[in-house]
Input
Amino acid sequence: MLKAEKISKTFRTKHNKIHALSSVSLEINKGEFVSITGPSGSGKSTLLLTLGGMSSPHSGKVLWSGESVFDWSNEKRAQWRAKTIGFVFQTFNLVPYLTVYENVRIALALSGKNENGAERVSNVLEQLGLSDRKDHLPRELSVGQQQRLALARVLVKDPELILADEPTGNLDPQTASEILAVIKNAKKEGKTVVLVTHDPNIAQTADRIIRIENGEIKNIIERAH
Output
């Protein structure tokens, strides 16, 4: 489904080069829940953005269903991201001047999946416990509610692939557990999930744990569930 073939990425600073990714190869199967872990600065987020077509590698390929993502036009790659991928970030990326309902509705509109739009938005808000907050602005929500709203914007478009970058990093343990439960439920519904985390307890909930250090895959742990 999603495959990386020897992808490398280098960032240049004033005085040196930083090898964020060094010939990383991996394959993620449909319906799999994979966690990517490792120390800060190891290349986890860079790998996630590259897999999602947002950051091009300097060498190597990212393949989706056998097609090279970075050989596509910018427009085709943007459409693929909008329709197929749901990104969840630690910073939420909500539209501050739109209500909860409007934030979810516009995410659905941008995906091009507008059939039964109002019903889909209402259903996902109810699923995530946000129905009673639908007319509030993001700043009027708790941090946990903002992360649930970010997830609602992802789930409403029914993506095939969810890429989550430290989605529980700013949350208290109870709220983090609730967010993880939503992500695990998405996996149960057949979605593929790739989650970046520094928390070993969260990493342990995945089907497979990929540990990265200094831009290289150090080990892969298959877990029995």
Summary: The chain has a mean pLDDT of 91.
